Amino acid sequence: MRDVAIASRLVWLVGLLPVACSVAPAPAARGRFEVVVLGTAQDGGLPHFGCNRQCCASARASGRELFPASLGVIDHDTGKLLLIEATPRVEPQVALLHALAGAQDRGRRPVDAVLLTHAHIGHYLGLAHFGREVASTPQLPVHVSPRMAAFLRGHGPWTQLVAQRQIELHEFAPGSPFSPIDGLTVTAIPVPHRDEWSDTMAFVLQGPRQQVLFVPDVDAWDQAPGLLDRLLDGVDVAFLDGTFWDGRELPDRNRAEIPHPLMVDTIGRLRERAQRRPGSLRFLHLNHTNPALHDPAIGREVTAAGFAIAQQGERVPL
Ligand SMILES: [Zn+2]
Ligand SMILES: [Zn+2]
Question: Which ligand is nearest to the CA of 85?
């Protein structure tokens, strides 16, 4: 009975994939590594806790769910799996990763390594599920900046995961490439973002075929001179902070407290690049209120400009 329930849920999850992505590419075409999109929403996902407006009421009524921004990497040669961000919805997201990878029973190792960008709730709270109360993983490598490592070592309940060796913290040096799984190179690039508990990273993933950028959270492209150019240098596919469309979606919040580049602004800056390589610049980390999630006319505007809104389940060869 339980298996039937799991299978039907996976069918539902995979049913969310856009048609073009729902059929796995032939092994030769997809190469050794693939990036898969496991979540596209801001930290609170969609529907969003406490929101009874149309954006979330209609999602609840239809069963539409968008998980917080997260990527997975599948190594088709070895079966290894990398999880980028451990969100509060880590359980269905790792189930989706397993379904996309065709993974069998993996025992107490649902993934082989985790990468975290920063200590805001949508990006790391799911780490709790690796602890004794749930998966109880044996020494799962978690790759973080030195400041994020100090935060996890120094604050409960995370400190317990470290002390009980369910996770093993691996500190990367920002700017220096490292390999969380063999054959895959990752470089962390610091980005300006509200840094109450940790600094914040973007990740550049370099596989044998392509380079993929993941930058779900940034305060402003101009806050560090030349940041956007540096992040995009040599990148084939970029997943960019798309939290807000044009700023009108949060009339009751002071946006100075939660700054993000607006999608309309990012589209303006990168239009030429997007026209040259349509679909290579994809937005994720969209807030539940972002009209690009709800208004097909805005979706068409994004596509016409050469950009894309990332879709849960989509695959990118790496
Ligand atoms: Zn976030
Ligand atoms: Zn954040």
Answer: 1
